């Protein structure tokens, strides 16, 4: 569990399976049965082919850093107490790019292309926030 | 149908103040509305179309048209963040070309400096589908732009010193603007030595936070011909949406890649024809990527393009933001599009501050960036001419 603020997200019927999976330590994304596309954030209609048959599928949890920034100033009060922290876009091995944090490492060691693995910060309300840590 | 030459910007007004603690947002909308109409030689009675964006309080256009006592037959509340007001010019030009509108009023006002509003919001994002997948991780306005800058540096070798040149040029211009929020000329060393906010963007890579507002009056050619004022024909317009592409995020380019070619084609000109450019400058990286995407240089070469005073008026290769821009002069309501159009009109009328007036300025470009750079943005480009 990282030290970063971990507030429960707004869960909707459309995204419930994603959030349920996070509570069990998995990244499940909706894969389009028709064209195979995996949209992120997950949604019920494929934006590529308009398919409505989407199958929730477990991802590997492994990816690489596409870009990042070390936030050193500002933010809400809870975030200010955790400065500096790393915001990042991580590309999962399966393709989708997620907005996330890189945690449990020195912020100044994060680089683009770095291999990372998902960790799950429990919100206490049946969901977890997906963050990433350098792959050991 | 093309709008080329059918609509003219006849009046502009930028609120002179940068801190306005004792007035309401509707009051500021009204002050700038009357200012722009007076500049054109018109009054509120002449207005038949009203345009506003997310900064207009209450019911937006309906609340403000009522407050201003307008008799509208056309209202447009298109909200694309800071670029909204350039989109409004495009929509007004189309409505004028279609014969629906003769005198369009566009206003912007806000008080983020003394009124407590935070940058980046449109006030309509609470139930956005992306909210649960972005806000929980501490994404801020600057950190989103910073990630685009970080990727640009990774792919193309762009440096902090190159980004700093953009701020240096803006500050060089702002010294001549008595209303500018920051009037001190800064150096590359001062920019890269300023406090790091979100790697790789420093405090001085960022725009100012100011109260204020501005307004535009766009009229038909028939109305323009009745006015004593020099009017500025709208030659070309373009809009481009650029999103996350459903998880295939590409931070290396902006919607200007779509809006720019559309505007150039409608105007029948090329980047080489542009004498002056107002480029949206929420952060230095916003300018650099926009210059590339508009075709002023190759993709990835923006860092080299801005060197050697290229952006400095009056004699740089592409004089930009001669009022000092959002980086130094004014970023009213956290939305910089309005002032981009206003300064382009000043240049085309020969009314910029004398030391930064571009000689024989005949064709100008104004570009707006709204939303979050490269990930959920509305880009808008206008090409403006001289009567």
Overview of this protein structure:
- The complex is a heterodimer of chains A (136) and B (387).
- Chain A is mainly beta and 136 residues long.
- Chain A has one domain (16-134): OB fold (Dihydrolipoamide Acetyltransferase, E2P) (Beta Barrel).
- Helices cover 9% and strands 36% of the residues of chain A.
- Chain A is built from 2 helices and 7 strands, in the order αβββαββββ.
- Chain A has helices at residues 16-23, 77-80, and strands at residues 28-32, 54-58, 62-71, 85-92, 97-102, 115-122, 128-134.
- Chain A has a 5-stranded antiparallel beta sheet with strand order 5-4-3-6-7. In chain A, strands 1-2 form a two-stranded antiparallel sheet.
- In chain A, a hairpin with a 5-residue loop joins β6 (115-122) and β7 (128-134).
- By secondary structure, chain B is of the alpha/beta class.
- Chain B has a single domain (7-119, 206-384), classed as Thiolase/Chalcone synthase (Peroxisomal Thiolase, Chain A, domain 1).
- Chain B contains 12 helices and 11 strands.
- Chain B has a 9-stranded mixed beta sheet, with helices on both faces. In chain B, strands 5-6 form a two-stranded antiparallel sheet.
- In chain B, α5 crosses α9.
- Chain B starts with 6 loop residues before the first strand and ends with a strand.
- The model of chain B has no long low-confidence stretch (mean pLDDT 96).
- The interface between A and B is large, with 42 and 33 residues.
CATH class of chain B: Alpha Beta
Please provide the count of β strands of chain A.
7
Biggest sheet of chain A: strands side by side, in what order? Answer: 5-4-3-6-7
N-to-C SSE series of chain B?
EHEHEHEHHHEEEHEHEHHHHEE
Radius of gyration of chain B: 19 Å
Percent of residues in β-strands of chain B: 15-25%
- Count of distinct strands of chain B: 11
**CATH C-level name of chain A:** Mainly Beta
Most residues in contact: chain pair: A-B, 42 and 33 residues
Q: What is the name of the CATH architecture of chain A? A: Beta Barrel
Enter the CATH topology name of chain A: OB fold (Dihydrolipoamide Acetyltransferase, E2P)
Mean pLDDT of chain B: 96
Envelope shape of chain A: globular
Total of DSSP H or I helical runs spanning 4+ residues of chain B: 12
**Low-confidence spans of chain A:** none
- The percent range for helix content of chain A is under 10%
Number of domains of chain B: 1
CA-to-CA gap between the ends of chain A? Answer: 17 Å
